[in-house]
Amino acid sequence: MRIGIIAYQGSFEEHALQTKRALDNLKIQGEIVAVKKPKDLQDVDGIIIPGGESTTIGIVAQKLGLLDELKEKINSGLPTLGTCAGAIMLAKDVSDAKVGKKSQPLIGLMDISVIRNYYGRQRESFEATVDLSEIGGGKARVVFIRAPAIIKTWGDTKAITKLNDVITMAVENNMIATTFHPELSSTTAVHEFFLKIVKK
Amino acid sequence: MRLYEISFYEVEQFFYKLAELRDIIKDQGLLTFLPEKQSYDIIQGSAMVKHAFPIFQKGGVVMDVTNVTQAEIAEDAGATAVMVLDKLPYDVRKSGGVARMADPKIIEEVMNSITIPVMAKVRIGHYYEAKVLEALGVDMIDESEVLTPADEEHHINKWEFKVPFVNGARNLGEALRRITEGASMIRTKGEAGTGNVSEAVKHMKIINSEIRSLISMSEEDRMKKAREYQVPYQIVELTVKLGRLPVVNFAAGGIATPADAALMMWLGADGIFVGSGIFKSQDPDVRAKAIVLATANWEDPEIVLEAQKMISESKSMMGIDIKSLKPEELLQVRGQ
Question: Which domains does chain A have, with CATH numbers?
Fold first, then answer.
């Protein structure tokens, strides 16, 4: 199994370690590769879009011709885990809590509506406990850093966890979006859930 | 892509243990200046929240800006954050006088016009500039030697704040002292406003070689080093176990071209601060894009070449040779 991680910017190293631990827990043989150019996407069985700045990741991916290729692969079923900035990249509808609509290069395939910087600025970033029992995990302490919120889902999308009635994780077929950071948490439940989708 | 042995969460458990020790002392009434302990379910401004923020800056470029127009250029170019200043380091150098924090009105204007994080600088040891910026809601505070120090002896106790701090360092001792004081991110000091990357290279190499030498030392020698650095021995051991600084480390000071940025990433920086290099050049918008591209793709010389071709050397900032500066004109020696 080959898991690719978009590695321009953000928490890609943290995702790599968490993916490795999840592979070990599930006793799956696997390889983790950095994805930067379109050719890095060949033979990848699943892709992770890490937390970071969605504008930066989008701009660089577009410049290197990766964005369209990625869009096509995800559209045709490539299992994808997008955390925070990654969830923004996946969403069909994106706006910013303060600045409103702003154009930025995105993937836009998942039936979710996302508001950037929903909880406020870094001063309002927080750690909290989320319940991952829906995907076979337990309660986990996670961080929300200038996090977005999934305020609406439609179509086949299913809300997995909520925090005070705001959706923090959603799944639609091959796509998983989280607004928190499982890669900075002690739990590997989200990564294991993702790897199980890849394995199918 | 680097693969570490210890996860972010495990590093944070270590910092919480240190904080617990402080809380015990505080509960006994021996310390009074620490913030209230929070025990409810949702916690803002904790060590984990502050240390997490710079993780999402990694591989990115933070750009110095002085107004909304420059901030928008930075955002459109793919900067991960902007640093708002009153004057760019090059102009601080030219104008002399006391350099202070930027005008809050301008910082606020920038905060209201872009979606990426906004950082701002305070003078070393100036608690109240920091309190003001925290009240304003900036995403990160840079306690910076580029401004005139307010306290020649002490830095700010950053554990008192909910906003994360970034501090400059020229060597491992300085870096670990700042982390012990609560810095969430370190940057090399370099020599700001010169367009000359040599000092940033020097500082990054010193930090790397000091970490390597710690790793090869016996435990008792490490204990001696901790005393020499004036930091808890535990931070030294954590650094050895990680093989790197326990927080995100960026390069800063004199970076002016895509190749400069890629060089610093190659030396092990997690990302880049660009000061005068962009808005003191004659091609700021293209140069900003090129530096972002080179930083994110530093492992690939072909892409860095492409980035380098986007800019023109004749439009780079003029630059100042460090050797031509008098000792009293150096910014990096402020605040050790």
Answer: 2-199 (3.40.50.880)
